Amino acid sequence: MALYGHFIHRGKVIDDGMMLGFRAPASYTGEDVVEFSCHGSEVVSGMLLSACIECGAAPAGPGEFTRRAFLNGRISLTQAEAVMDLVASSSRQAAAAAESALEGALYRKIQEIEESLVTLAGHLAACVDFPEEDVEELTAQEFARVSRQARAELAALVENYDRGMVIKRGVRAAIVGSPNVGKSTLFNVMSGFERAIVTPVAGTTRDVVREQIQVGGIQLLLSDTAGLHQTEDVVEAEGIRRSEAEMEQAALLIAVYDGSQPLDVAGRALAESCAGKPAVAVINKSDLGTMIDVAELLPWFAEAVVVSANERDTAETIEQAILRLLKLNDMDTDAAMLANQRQLRAAEAALMALDDADAALMAGYTLDAAGVCLEDALSALKELSGENVAEAVIDEVFSAFCVGK
Ligand SMILES: Nc1nc2c(ncn2[C@@H]2O[C@H](COP(=O)(O)OP(=O)(O)O)[C@@H](O)[C@H]2O)c(=O)[nH]1
Ligand SMILES: [Mg+2]
């Protein structure tokens, strides 16, 4: 119901505006709710707020609305966490993943696993507690079959956590390489504007230059660094020290080569320092000829591309290589995903308890012993979904919210 009228307090008109009324349980929190809409100046909204507080209202704490929605059973804890992620999302994919969690993708997945385990625990209890009744015998094989299925689902969630975090938080990527290979030029091409200084003089870039860009709906925190080489110049040496620190911290390396020159000692050393890390080799300056073959670098890099900085599709070529490397080109943001450390820990605890159950069965213990592990797994899952979670954990979850969300 929406009403138009005047806000009057102590006989004085504050403003005119709208009131929206929501009758329980059909509101966000599940309680009776009214929303006032007034004209947007801070003075007017401040007066209206003061009037409400004088009449007995209390200001909402961080996440209070969502917390009430959770406590009233409107949403699960994983959905509440998704609300926060959606508000904080910094890329299209992050927003899509949060939206899907809000729609309950993770919650449903956890429910599914939980239900299969509850059925199993029920069957087990019936066999143990009422052996004289006509209950179908639960075999170790059947127990193992159900618990393996649940383990596989949980293991997939845990394995995908890192990729989910990439979507949520973005990736720190550093452009590295020898002087003058075109690092700053490519940095500018990827940023879409002339952010870093480009000159034919080696040693132009000294400080680390950063820019946030979006690649395939993912946020990339891209940095351009000073060229790596031996130098007597103290300022440049400091720049190189910073480049190396940046390389350490980056989750993704973009190693640039001047492809018009053969692979030299410095280039080989760079390749070796990239080995085993997520790194893309970019062989630049193809307009001046190609003396470095992709195959030469593939022993060290999972992805290598040949480009010329001035060509139209260069940014696209590098971005596609990055998405392939991070395995994000086939990422399904609608799938259930764990969204934070709390959820990850609970999923891992459930997984471990099921592993224990399996180990107990393998070691020839009774189904009873495996049943104890099963209960542990169930309680970890209930913690994940928030069905059975300590007050302190709830406090922690909502303390990270903004006020009034
Ligand atoms: N021909 C050609 N020149 C390039 C290309 N990329 C960069 N350069 C030039 O190489 C020089 C060094 O580039 P810069 O981006 O400053 O290299 P950095 O030291 O690695 O950051 C500049 O004169 C650029 O214009 C390319 O693809 N082709
Ligand atoms: Mg540079």
Strand content: 15-25%
> How would a crystallographer describe the biggest sheet?
6 strands, mixed
Q: What's the CATH first level of the largest domain?
A: Alpha Beta
Please tell me how large the radius of gyration is.
29 Å
Named CATH topology of the largest domain: Rossmann fold
Written description of the protein model:
With 405 residues, the chain is α/β, with parallel strands linked by helices. The protein folds into 3 domains: 58 residues, Gyrase A, domain 2; 148 residues, Up-down Bundle (Four Helix Bundle (Hemerythrin (Met), subunit A)), CATH 1.20.120; 158 residues, Rossmann fold (3-Layer(aba) Sandwich), CATH 3.40.50. 49% of the residues lie in helices and 15% in strands. The chain has 15 helices and 9 strands. It has a 6-stranded mixed sheet, with helices on both faces. A 3-stranded antiparallel sheet has the order 1-2-3. The structure holds guanosine-5'-diphosphate and magnesium ion.
